[in-house]
Amino acid sequence: MERAEAAPTLEAFPEFEVRRERGLWSDAFRRLIRNRLAMAALILLTAIAILAVLGNYTDVVQRYRPSAQDFDVVNEGPSAAHFFGTDSLGRDNWSRVLEGLLISLQVGLGVQAIVLVIGLTVGGAAALGGRLLDNIMMRITDLAYAFPDLLAIILLRSVFFGRDLPGVGHDASQRLLVIFAIAFVAWVTVARLVRGQMLSLKERDFVLAARAMGASPFRIVFQHMLPNTLGPVIVAVVFGIPLAIFAEAVLAFIGIGLPPPTASLGTLVNEGYAFIEVNYWIVVFPAATIAVLMLCFTFLGDGLRDALDPMGR
User: Is residue 258 part of a domain?
Assistant: First the structure.
């Protein structure tokens, strides 16, 4: 009796290359790194963040204390001693811009961290909690959406202006209060987005198949629905960072932001505006820093949107 021949293996056909299927996130990463504008924005943001940290927590970059005054060099332009010049009290603008840069990054990232938690909680509860809970959550969301954002932030900031949180230092309390005030009105977009995505995913075939196979609701939500919701949510969060930075700058510019001597970028623009005819550099550098931050996060958000949803371009 003849023996059956062994089945051919892949080693017998070296000309054929086996390609592994890539997942959503690996494909998105490949598309993102091919976007030159988004990668340039990411590299610049990384450099800015490192510069802000080094300038505020080490003496490697910062040459003067932000609050140190020298009346012999009042309202001077850029020089080798003072890269960004000095203000009306002889304070070094380079050091003050570095401090404002760190504050802007803290506010932008802190606001979006709170927005992400609230948006996922409210949107997920509305989509998965039944019709009654959905109506309650969405009516609360509509009320928050209908109230003017900037006016609500100004009202909240005015109520808690100058107050400290229990057990927290003065500077940290003021930063947290600004972050909470902005996040209080910024979560609506993410909540609506999460609700819409999850309502759509509830009727998709892979979710129905997982439910038919006996998967628990917890597993369906966190293993199947949430990962497919995060793509557009991440894009919305990245786009929300420059909006939070601009909102903090507006609060500081109108005088209800972080109190002196904290050097917020908006405060620097406000203080320098009165001396713009004497030394316009005092306004140009903090305003340009705000513009660069907002452009970088916008370009990065565009790149993430194209990477995570290439069919939506």
Answer: yes
CATH of the domain at 132: 1.10.3720.10
Task: Please count the structural domains in the chain.
Answer: 1
In a domain, residue 10? The reply is: no
Closest CA relative to residue 297, chosen from 29, 38, 32, 53: 38
Question: Is 3 inside any structural domain?
Answer: no
Q: Is the dihedral of CA 79, 85, 86, 92 positive or negative?
A: negative
- Residue 202: inside a domain: yes
Q: Which domain holds residue 141?
A: 33-312
Q: Is the pTM of this model over 0.90?
A: no
Summarize pLDDT for 227-286 with one digit per residue, the tens.
Answer: 888 888 999 999 999 999 998 888 888 888 787 778 888 888 888 888 888 888 889 999
